[in-house]
């Protein structure tokens, strides 16, 4: 009699949803760089399908040498892949991702585990859940903070002092309305010098603390086609930075708000849940429309401290005309497009919104444009690369100090 131990049966039962997400995170974050046809036929509604997910899991399992040889042999000679053990096991993995709340398919009820992809067309688009986006954001943030070498908690300092919160080490005479955060040493010194009978309200000394405030941020991502041309994927690193920043703000700065926009021929706001799967396209760079969108988004967010973080690699090459038509000129720095873009920067300055630009290219006229934007809005400009952009963005966000006058 032969005894079969199920523990040693081939299969993927040991893989959790988190393990699977780890294996396919590059697939989920793809920006279109791996698809050469996407560079010439932009489809803004493009997103991963069930068939894409199947292929990504298959590739990941092959790279990890997890597939038994007999399964591969069966798949190689099968008339229909749906009849093979390999296909059925990968479908179980897809179901596991759905059951554990990482993906959702259109027309399914997320409150009903086990309901889902069976019978769904392979062309059905996937939807990432909040849990999935949080996973990708956490992974991105860990990688970026690892590059910094430290984590920096806290809140954003302002130029103001106030009683309470975090002590600054400075003091001031008590004024009516101050919180009774007395500095015992200085108050006792006045008591000894004047005596209890002569002590007045002005002799009470309160300890000052740093006043912190919430920061509202709009992250603008350039998704024109230059972000995946020239043999380099610049858009995926930009998305990783945005996801990491979103996770940092949610976990370390709960009072802050962050929203995301993309700009190409035009501009649009992107919900956080759709950000990982956004791909490049259409072609041109409508920076003015992106800034106009960011200003509109910030007006809807309460609070006084506001900023725009813009990640781009190209000069403005498109403009939305009053008629709604898109005027495009990819050759040189068009004076009409430049003037309208600088106008949006000036309006941001009047609204107290600095623009911090992270530039992924080095063309002289592009650098001159960024310098002008920075001067107008009193923001900052960083010349960086896809490899280290996250380090610059997080250092700027975590360490920005406001001088006290």
Describe this structure in words.
- This protein has 405 residues and is of the alpha/beta class.
- It has 3 domains: 10-128, no CATH class; 156-212, no CATH class; 214-399, Rossmann fold, CATH 3.40.50.
- 38% of the residues lie in helices and 17% in strands.
- The protein has 11 helices and 13 strands.
- A 6-stranded mixed sheet has the order 8-7-6-9-12-13, sandwiched between helices.
- Strand 10 (318-320) and strand 11 (326-328) form a beta hairpin.
- Helix 2 (50-63) packs across helix 4.
- The longest helix has 19 residues, at 130-148.
- The protein starts with 16 loop residues before the first helix and ends in a 6-residue tail after the last helix.
Structural topology:
Blueprint: H1 17-28, H2 50-63, H3 69-77, H4 85-99, E1 103-104, E2 127-128, H5 130-148, E3 156-162, E4 166-173, H6 184-194, E5 205-213, E6 215-222, H7 235-252, E7 257-263, E8 267-270, H8 287-299, E9 305-312, E10 318-320, E11 326-328, H9 335-350, E12 355-359, H10 364-377, E13 381-383, H11 389-399
Parallel strand pairs: 6-7, 6-9, 9-12, 12-13
Antiparallel strand pairs: 1-2, 3-5, 4-5, 7-8, 10-11
Helix pairs in contact: 1-2, 1-4, 2-4, 5-7, 5-11, 7-11, 8-9, 9-10
Secondary structural class: alpha/beta
Run of helices and strands: HHHHEEHEEHEEHEEHEEEHEHEH
CATH class of the largest domain: Alpha Beta
Structural domains: how many: 3
**Rg, Cα atoms, Å:** 27 Å
On the 0 to 100 scale, the average pLDDT is: 78
Major sheet summary line: 6 strands, mixed
Give the helix proportion (percent range): 25-40%
Instruction: Write the CATH fold name of the largest domain.
Output: Rossmann fold
CATH architecture of the largest domain: 3-Layer(aba) Sandwich
- Count of beta strands: 13
Terminus-to-terminus distance: 87 Å
Low-confidence segments, given as residue ranges, are: 1-8, 149-169, 401-405
Q: What count of helical segments does DSSP give?
A: 11
What fraction of residues sit in β-strands? 15-25%
* Widest sheet, order of strands: 8-7-6-9-12-13
So what's the oligomer here?
single chain
Global shape:
flat
CATH homologous superfamily grouping of the largest domain: von Willebrand factor, type A domain
Protein name: von Willebrand factor type A domain protein
């Amino acid at each position: 009699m032969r005894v079969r131990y199920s523990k040693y049966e081939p299969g993927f039962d040991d893989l959790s949803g988190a393990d699977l997400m780890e294996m396919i995170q590059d697939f989920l974050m793809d920006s279109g760089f791996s698809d050469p046809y996407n560079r010439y036929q932009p489809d803004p509604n493009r997103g991963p399908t069930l068939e894409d997910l199947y292929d990504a899991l298959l590739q990941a399992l092959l790279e990890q040498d997890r597939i038994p040889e007999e399964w591969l042999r069966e798949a190689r000679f099968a008339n229909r892949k749906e009849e093979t053990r390999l296909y059925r096991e990968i479908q179980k993995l897809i179901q596991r991702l759905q059951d554990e709340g990482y993906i959702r398919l259109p027309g399914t009820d997320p409150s009903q585990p086990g309901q889902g992809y069976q019978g769904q067309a392979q062309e059905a688009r996937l939807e990432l859940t909040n849990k999935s986006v949080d996973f990708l954001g956490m992974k991105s943030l860990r990688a970026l903070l690892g590059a910094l070498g430290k984590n920096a908690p806290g809140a954003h300092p302002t130029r103001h002092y106030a009683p309470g919160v975090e002590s600054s080490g400075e003091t001031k005479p008590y004024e009516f309305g101050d919180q009774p955060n007395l500095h015992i040493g200085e108050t006792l010194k006045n008591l000894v010098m004047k005596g209890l009978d002569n002590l007045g309200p002005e002799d009470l000394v309160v300890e000052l603390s740093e006043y912190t405030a919430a920061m509202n941020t709009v992250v603008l991502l350039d998704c024109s086609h230059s972000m995946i041309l020239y043999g380099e994927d610049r858009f995926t690193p930009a998305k990783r930075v945005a996801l990491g920043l979103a996770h940092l703000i949610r976990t370390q700065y709960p009072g802050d708000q962050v929203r995301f926009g993309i700009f190409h021929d035009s501009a649009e706001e992107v919900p956080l849940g759709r950000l990982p799967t956004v791909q490049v396209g259409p072609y041109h760079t409508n920076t003015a429309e992106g800034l106009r969108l960011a200003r509109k988004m910030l007006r809807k967010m309460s609070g006084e401290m506001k900023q725009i973080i813009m990640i781009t690699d190209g000069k403005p090459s498109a403009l939305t005309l009053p008629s709604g038509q898109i005027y495009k000129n990819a050759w040189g720095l068009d004076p009409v497009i430049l003037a309208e873009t600088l106008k949006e920067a000036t309006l941001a300055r009047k609204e107290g919104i600095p623009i911090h630009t992270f530039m992924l290219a080095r063309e002289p006229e592009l650098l001159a444009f960024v310098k002008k934007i920075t001067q107008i809005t009193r923001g900052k400009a960083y010349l960086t690369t896809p490899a280290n952009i996250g380090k610059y963005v997080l250092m700027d966000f975590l360490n920005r100090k406001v001088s006290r006058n």
